[in-house]
Amino acid sequence: MVAELSSRERLMMAINHVEADHVPFLFNMFDLPQEALPASLRYSDQVERAERFVAAGFDDTLSISAPWGVSPEVKTRVWKEQPAGEPYPLIHKVYETPKGDLMQVVKQTADWPGGDDIGIFSDHNVPRSVRFLVESAGDLEKLPYILGAPSADEMAWFRANARETKAHADRIGVALQGHCRALGDAAIWLCGAENFMIACHERPEFAHEVLRAIHEWELRGLDMLLDAGVCDIIVHRAWYESPAFFSPALHRKFLLDGIREEAGLVHRAGLKYQYIQTIRPQNMVGEYLGADIDILWGVDPIQGEADLAALKRECGDRICFIGGVNSYVTVGQGSREEVRAAVREAITTLAPGGGFALLLVDAVDRSVPWSRVEWVVEDWREMGRY
User: Fold this and answer.
1) Same structural domain for residues 85 and 45?
2) Cβ proximity of 304 and 325 under 8 Å
3) Do 22 and 115 sit in the same domain of this protein?
4) Please, what sign has the CA dihedral across residues 51, 7, 361, 243?
5) Which pLDDT value is given to residue 3?
6) Structural domain range at position 79
7) Which end of the chain is more exposed for a tag (fewer CB within 10 A), N or C?
8) Stated pTM of the model
9) Total domains, the chain
């Protein structure tokens, strides 16, 4: 057992499959009113959050993201129409590129969060879209114009922010994550879930070309993060790269090579590669090992149906798992005994030999009372020491 570790040292030991002083405990906060937290943990930004959570004995990370922008050659037009007999107005947005127009159309439902505009990448677009930005082979030559590079001013801000965030991370003693982009997620945002998954079967050349354009864009972002020279971990979001969308065979056919290339670049820079995916990860063990990922974020035995024992047995010596306990069902609704049993199962199954950090998957939000989170804290303090 090693004592008096910084949060960064503890987390990196876990990632490297070394038992530290105790199991790291990370939090992902989402849409959580500050008044729902104890006064000692309330924060205004990620730096204050890390300061306060680390001071309380928890772990945290700071983050930066690779910038990007629509090409300056592109002009946009946005307008709204109310079709006769339809309950919702339709927002239209056109990107006028040198190769022609790309258009997206969404229903402005009562819960639409974007006002009278449409963002390119958003989960909210997928169920409300009447037309997606990329639907046909003719759209492919236009796609690179909306997956453009940041401006000089944006790059200058990114470099300055990276240095400043690194200084805060060093002072607090936490790891720094660089958030890259998204391969399968971006494809579904651009094309629609059903459209893209059908294309993988019926128009595989089109699907490959969409992913090729996204991958090239993602590699440019990765290069910015690696060039900044401040990160410990590079994060690839893969919510939609799960077995709910891609079977293992489809994952190997369309995604694996790109993920493996990214992980290789990250490893050559001496960093760790984190993959965010929360659904039935035991179904994808071969793909994750083949891609050489270091960290699987979001291991959830309830809503994600993760088999903790199978994961530890099949890849626990090579992949660090972050998660272990479901937030919304187990902590948010379970009895005190059920919560305690879940924490015990996660720690006793995943923690031996290192390779585990506790996280309530996938977030603590307004639906999970902090009084119930304190049950987990109590159990972690009791059970989580090596």
Assistant:
1) no
2) no
3) no
4) positive
5) 52
6) 75-131
7) N
8) 0.96
9) 2
